[in-house]
Specification:
- The complex is a heterodimer of chains A (251) and B (325).
- Chain A is 41% helix and 25% strand.
- In chain A, strands 6-7-8-3-9-10 form a 6-stranded mixed β-sheet, with helices on both faces. In chain A, strands 2-1-4-5 form a 4-stranded antiparallel β-sheet, with helices on one face.
- Chain A has 251 residues and is an alpha/beta fold.
- Chain A has a single domain, classed as Rossmann fold (3-Layer(aba) Sandwich), CATH 3.40.50.300.
- Chain A starts with a helix and ends with a helix.
- With 325 residues, chain B is mainly α.
- Chain B has a domain of 218 residues.
- Helix content of chain B is 71%, strand content 1%.
- Chain B has 15 helices and 2 strands.
- Chain B has a two-stranded antiparallel ribbon with strand order 1-2.
- The radius of gyration of chain B is 20 Å and the shape is globular.
- The chains are: A alpha/beta (251), B mainly alpha (325).
- Chains A and B meet through helix 3, helix 4 and helix 6 of A and helix 8 and helix 9 of B.
Chain lengths: 251, 325
């Protein structure tokens, strides 16, 4: 699985940048995000870490258009998507791996994957190649292609969730808490796949509670606290930061 | 996988509907086509009438199933069936039947968009109750229209379809069911299939996958109601007398639901097969057990739902999973 292999089939994924400026959002009267600004360069791998309730998932949901921001601006590849509908945002190249995987349990693995490509004509046109690519990334899924997604293990389900997002041929992939409920070994597998996807050119924004692993994996990271970005830096910088070590790594 | 390696050319892969799976459906339509030419003996008129209403039941069930595929389990099917019947009765007076028929269906389809918009945020039981209430509202409105136009509670005479020629009417019903089946198959092969399946299983996830939930839910309503109304046209044109109580009866909303479940949800053949088996069974039971045939009918339904959770289609595709979900 190398980038050149993918180049030869002409299906190399092209990263775009994702910029969030002074984002505020919430649910009804409850404001969750107060002032979130972050920037993910094309092809970059950025992690967002923070405690439960810090607003990580809400930030991703705002990017996807599921939550409407009350202030601020989000751009994808230079285009303003702050008020766009989720379907338009997917059309512009965003892939979302939702928290808790959210597969369709009564559909087969393959049907779940196909669904990821169904809503983007350009993704549908190259669906077969992308499917082969996903199977290369997660060989386990090709063995399980005809099995109902609800019968898979947690790790396999996470693979399907990542694969389903990739089927839409995203230029930017946002991934919400992929390690949730996974064994350390399975977490490694899924994170390895995310790195591979990133190395193929896809921009990745990862939200994680497994702070140690995500800081080692990401080029840069942001620390979110109470709906605000309180720190940013390279993965190694933050790993060495005493405050981060104490708060998130319990060291 | 072999197709995936197709030299890197763009290959549009459609959801698999192998020809083999279409064989039983083709067989059904072939049988239905030759049915009127069979030597049916002296009871042929009666048998042809049962066959006609079996086709109508098939239209109703399959059109309901199309809506159910988008996760909208509706109890408003009688409303659109009835709107088709009444629309045809009224329009049939001022235009030829072949125009009145699609016009009535179009009106029902457009009215369904109102219901679809109102119930957009409802799901499960709340959705079902709202659709049930809608049927009552439509019935009440029709019943209270000026008697000179819509006949009020007493009902309305309808111009007989095709001059009352039973065989011609049968072939018209055959054509409508075939059309409904082709629409269903076209949906199966298009992106609608994926959009509906995603919405049904999780609206929120469907949205982040790029499905325009509002658009596809309304589209499901329109298609389903348009087809149901065609069924209503057939009913009205065949019985040439309709009244609000019977036309908008709850039974007309429940029957497509039970028929689809019995035959096999989210499939094209299932609801058609279900309609055929249930109509024939109902008729046989009705003729053999004069009193209480409905009790036996109900028992058959209950037991089959218990033992055949995937309906008759589960028998046809034993051991295979997921193919039609």
């Amino acid at each position: 699985m190398t980038a050149t292999q993918i180049n030869s089939t002409g299906t190399r994924l092209q990263g775009q940048d994702l910029v969030i400026e002074n984002l505020a959002a919430g649910y009804g009267k409850v404001q969750v995000l107060w002032d979130v600004s972050l920037r993910v360069a094309p092809g970059e791998f950025v992690a967002m870490i923070g405690a439960n309730g810090a607003g990580k998932t809400t930030t991703l949901r705002a990017v996807s258009g599921v939550v409407k921001p009350s202030a601020g601006r989000i751009t994808l590849g230079g285009r303003d998507i702050t008020r766009a509908a989720p379907s338009q945002i997917v059309g512009l190249g965003l892939g979302h791996v939702p928290e808790g995987r959210e597969l369709f349990p009564l559909m087969t693995v393959r049907e779940n994957l196909e669904l990821g490509a169904a809503m983007r004509p350009e993704a549908r046109a190259v669906q077969a190649q992308t499917l082969a690519h996903v199977y290369e990334l997660f060989p386990r899924l090709s063995e399980r292609a005809g099995q109902l997604a609800g019968t898979l293990s947690g790790g396999e389900q996470q693979m399907v969730a990542v694969g389903r997002a990739l089927m839409g041929r995203p230029s930017v992939l946002v991934v919400d808490e992929p390690s949730l409920g996974l064994s350390p070994l399975m977490t490694q597998t899924v994170f390895g796949a995310l790195r591979a996807v990133n190395e193929q050119g896809v921009t990745v924004l990862l939200v994680e509670q497994n702070v140690g692993l995500s800081l080692r994996l990401a080029h840069r990271a942001y620390v979110l606290e109470n709906g605000q970005v309180v720190k940013e830096g390279s993965g190694t910088e933050l790993l060495a930061d005493p405050a981060v070590r104490e708060a998130y790594l319990a060291l | 996988m072999s197709r995936a390696m197709d030299g890197g050319r763009a290959v549009v892969r459609r959801p698999d509907v192998p020809l083999r799976a279409l064989l039983p459906l083709g067989l059904f339509f072939l049988l239905a086509l030759v049915f009127p030419f069979l030597p049916l003996g002296e009871r042929s008129e009666y048998l042809l009438q049962i066959a006609f209403f079996t086709l109508v039941a098939g239209v109703l069930a399959l059109s309901w199933d199309i809506l159910a595929r988008s996760g909208q389990v509706s109890l408003a099917h009688a409303a659109f069936y009835g709107l088709g019947a009444y629309g045809f009765a009224l329009l049939g007076k001022v235009m030829p039947w072949f125009l009145a028929m699609p016009a009535a269906a179009l009106i029902a389809g457009l009215i369904s968009l109102i219901l679809g918009a109102v119930t957009m945020r409802l799901s499960g039981m709340y959705f079902a109750i709202a659709t049930l209430a809608f049927t009552e509202v439509v019935r009440t409105i029709i019943q209270n229209l000026p008697e000179a136009t819509a006949g009020g509670a007493n009902g309305l005479l309808v111009p007989a379809l095709l001059g009352g020629n039973a065989r011609a009417q049968y072939f018209l019903a055959f054509g409508i069911l075939l059309f409904t089946a082709l629409v269903s198959l076209a949906i199966r092969r298009s992106r609608l299939h994926h959009a509906f399946a995603a919405i049904r299983q999780g609206e929120e996830t469907a949205r982040v996958l790029g499905v325009s939930v509002v658009k596809y839910k309304l589209l499901a309503f329109f298609i389903s109601s348009f087809l149901a109304a065609l069924g209503g046209v057939l009913y009205a044109g065949k019985t040439f007398f309709i009244n609000p109580l019977e036309t908008f009866s709850l039974a007309n909303s429940i029957a497509p639901l039970t028929t689809s479940i019995f035959g096999g949800l989210y499939t094209t053949l299932g609801p058609i097969l279900g309609a055929t088996v249930l109509r024939v069974a109902e008729e046989i039971l009705h003729n053999s057990i004069k009193n209480g045939y409905l009790v036996v009918y109900g028992l058959v339904l209950m037991l089959s739902i218990l033992w055949l959770p995937r309906g008759l289609m589960g028998l046809l595709r034993r051991g295979k999973h997921g193919g039609d979900v």
